Amino acid sequence: MGLFTGLRDSISRATDRLFSDKEPKRIGIYGPPNAGKTTLANRIARDWTGDAIGTESHIPHETRRARRKENVEVKRNGKSVTIDIVDTPGVTTKVDYEEFTDEMDKEDAVRRSREATEGVAEAMHWLREDVDGVIYVLDSAEDPITQVNTMLIGIIESRDLPVLIFANKIDLEESSVKRIADAFPQHKTVPLSAKEGENMDEVYDSIAEYFG
Amino acid sequence: MANATKPDGDESDAGTEPETDIDTDGVQIDLISGERMESLASMEKIRMILDGVHEGNIVILEEGLTPDEESKLIEVTMAEISPDEFNGIEIETYPRSSGGNTSFFGRIMGNDEGGAKLTVIGPANQIKTLHKDETLISALVSRK
Fold it and tell me: What is the ipTM of this complex?
C-alpha cells in the first residue's frame, strides 16, 4: 500500500511538472512610456529567437498595441525556461496629442494619442487578466517615485504576480540604479542597458530564476 | 453623477450630490469621505470621480481606491480622453502610516497595511504636482 501510494504521488508530481513546463508563462513587460520596454523585448527576442517584436522610438507611445512573442526559450546553467513575452504600451493617466505635434502634423498626433489611450487600456486589461509575471522597466535616469509607478507596482503586488524591476538605460550618465532599488526595496532590481546589451547575463539569470 | 445639478429639496440630505451650478471662476474641490465611498460599487466610485474631474473639479478621497479600482480608473480614463476636451487625470496619493511598522519607502510607495490612502485627483491640464513626500503633497491647481 505504501509502495503504491508513493508510486502514485511520484507519478502525480512528474505529471504536474510535465504539464506546468509545457505551458509557457506569459511575462508582461510593463512600465511608463519611454522606459525602453520595446528595446528590451526586442533584445530578449533577438537573443533567443532571432526575431524582433516591435518598432523602437524616442517618441513616447510608439508601442500602442500589446504584442506577444511566443515560446521564447531562455537557457541558463543547463536549464531552460520558456516564456511568452508580452510587450505592452507605456502606462500613463494622461495623453495629450500636443505632446507629439513637434514630431508630426496635428492629424497624425491626434491619431497617435487616440491609439495610445486604447493601448494603455489594453495594457491594464492584460495586467488584470492575462499575465503570469511582470518585468517592470524603468528609465534609471528618471525619478522612479511617480504616481504611475506607485499605482502599477501596487496593482501587480495585489495580484500576487512575481515581478522583477529592470533599471534600464545604465549607459546614460545620469543613471542611478540605487535610486530605483531604494524606491522598491521589496523587489529585486536588475541594472541593464537594453540598447547597448549591458548586463544581459544577469537579466537572463533573473528571468530563469523568477519565472522558471 | 457626482456633479449633477442638485434638485430643489432637502439641503441636509447626506445622499445629495455636490452643487455645481454656481457661476464662479474658482475651482471646486469635492472632499469625499470614506463612509460615502464605502457604500458605492467600484464602477460607481470611478464614475463619481471622473464626472467630477470632467467638470474641472478637484476630487479628494479620504480613503482612496483599491489597486483593482485604480487599475479600472486608468482604463476608463483612457477611454474618455478626447483631443482638445479631456487629456486625462493627475492623481496623487498621500500614504498613511499604519502604525509605525511600515518602512519609509513602504509608506511612500503606498504599501501600508491599512490601505486607506488620501488621494487627490484632478484634470491633467489643471493640476500639477509640485512636491510629494511621505507627509506632504504640494500641488498647483489652475482654472479651466
Answer: 0.81
Beta bridge partner(s), residue B129: B139
- Strand locations in chain A, DSSP E? 25-30, 67-76, 79-87, 133-139, 163-168, 189-191
**Residue A137 scores a pLDDT above 90:** yes
Checking if the pLDDT of A136 tops 90, the result is yes
To the nearest whole Å, the CA of B120 is away from the closest chain A CA by 11
Q: Supply the pTM of this predicted model.
A: 0.81
**A200-207 — which CB contacts under 8 Å span 24+ positions?**
A200/A43, A200/A47, A203/A44, A203/A166, A204/A47, A204/A74, A204/A76, A205/A76, A205/A77, A206/A164, A207/A27, A207/A44, A207/A74, A207/A81, A207/A83, A207/A135, A207/A164
The CATH topology of domain B29-141 is: 3.30.950
Interface of A with B in 145-184 (CB under 8 A): 145, 147, 150-151, 153-155, 157-159, 182-184
All structural domains of chain A with their residue ranges: 24-211
Give A165-208 pLDDT, tens digit per residue: 999 999 999 999 999 999 999 999 999 999 999 999 999 999 99
Summarize pLDDT for B37-72 with one digit per residue, the tens. 999 999 999 999 999 999 999 999 999 999 999 999
Q: Which sequence spans correspond to the domains of chain B?
A: 29-141
**Grid cell for residue A145:** 517615485
Class of domain A24-211: alpha beta
